[in-house]
Amino acid sequence: QVQLVESGGGLVQPGGSLRLSCVASGGIFGIATLGWYRQAPGEERELVASINSGRGTNYADSVKGRFTISRDNVRNTVYLQMNNLKPEDTAVYYCRWERGSINYWGQGTQVTVSS
Q: How far apart are CA 58 and CA 52, in angstroms?
């Protein structure tokens, strides 16, 4: 069983920045693919960014050039640096741990971009 705890969400003005963190416990962190997903009200959950065990990354087109995903295998933590935030980035952001057919989700952290 893997537990994931996200933090770092909040209210920010358009153009601002936030850094999300997700700490994992109970699993072998270094072999997993870690991802950040988001879900806005009335919308389906969507992939924002992912990073595999070799540190290869993948980003949604809507966040390329603005968001950066990274991982610290010593601290069992995955980060999402979000710059130049836009109102359409408003959503609950979830962390995901994945290895083969097994995956776990965090509880989510709210990000609100508004003036």
A: 9
Would you state the pLDDT for residue 33?
A: 96
- pLDDT per position as a tens digit, 48-77: 999 999 999 999 999 999 999 999 999 999
DSSP-derived 3-state class of residue 60: coil
Distance CA 56, CA 58 (A): 7
How far apart, in whole angstroms, are the C-alpha atoms of residue 24 and residue 76?
Answer: 6
Half-sphere exposure of 96 (CA within 13 A, CB side): 22
- Smallest Cα–Cα separation from 109: which of 98, 99, 94, 96? 94
Which residues of the chain have a pLDDT value below 70? Answer: none
Say how far apart CA 69 and CA 56 lie, in whole Å: 10
Kindly state the helix (H) or strand (E) to which residue 103 belongs, with its residue range.
Answer: strand 102-105
